[in-house]
Amino acid sequence: MTIFSSKINGLTKSEQRILQFIEENPIGVETMTIQYLANQCHTSTATVSRLAKKLGFSHFNKFKLELFNTRYNELYDAQFTSGDSVEQLVMKLANSNMTSIQETLSLINIEELKYVVELIRKATTIYLFGVGTSGTVCSDFYYKLNRLGKNCIYTQDSHIQTASIVSASKDDIAIGISYSGTTKEVLVPLQFAASHSLKTIAITGVGTSPIVTICDFIFRIPRHEQELRVGAIDSRNNSMFLTDLLYLAMIQDDVSQLKSIFETTKELTNLLK
Prior knowledge:
Arc Repressor Mutant, subunit A, 2 domains, 58% helix
């Protein structure tokens, strides 16, 4: 990475040494004080300030801000590669998470979110469907709902989970999570639920897919993962962001009651220590 050195001539050896250090430690420099950087480069703070001005910045902090922005833009849409350093992985993952969550936010219909929250509140039983990475989101949501005292059904065995919907009633709801929108283990029980007048909700990637034609309410997550998905990180985080939103919106009106539940839970789990 060479952000600045190719754009300026006439640098002293000390200034060139500072630039080389920055290129080798771009993330660390963004959090360093001018004194600390000077010490690391065996030079003075005056030399660091002079370099910043030669590069067109009024002071060192503006230089650091530009360094951060350059790194951010450089990695904004970057793919993970086998040659990435740990520092690059840190930046790429952080930027990927921030970007995908912002995109997910832009896809949310707040009024629809509020309506679905009420459906979950009033439901007698909540059925969750998801396998693989989506299954980890279901497991997390299952734990949260049960902690609130909601009757929720989910198991990682897709055959058992599919069979469970047979006993559902019209007062229940079914929630399916599938990034592709084509997962048979999610589609089959949702189709059954829809055919028996249950309200159905999907969390899936943008675009057309079978799950979109089945469900009453659709929450979208962005589709920008590569074909080779690195642990399906973005889709998992985005899906869990939506289930966390549903969870937090549910507990807003029941803070006092939930406080008692959480305190009792804590007392009980403390017995296991």
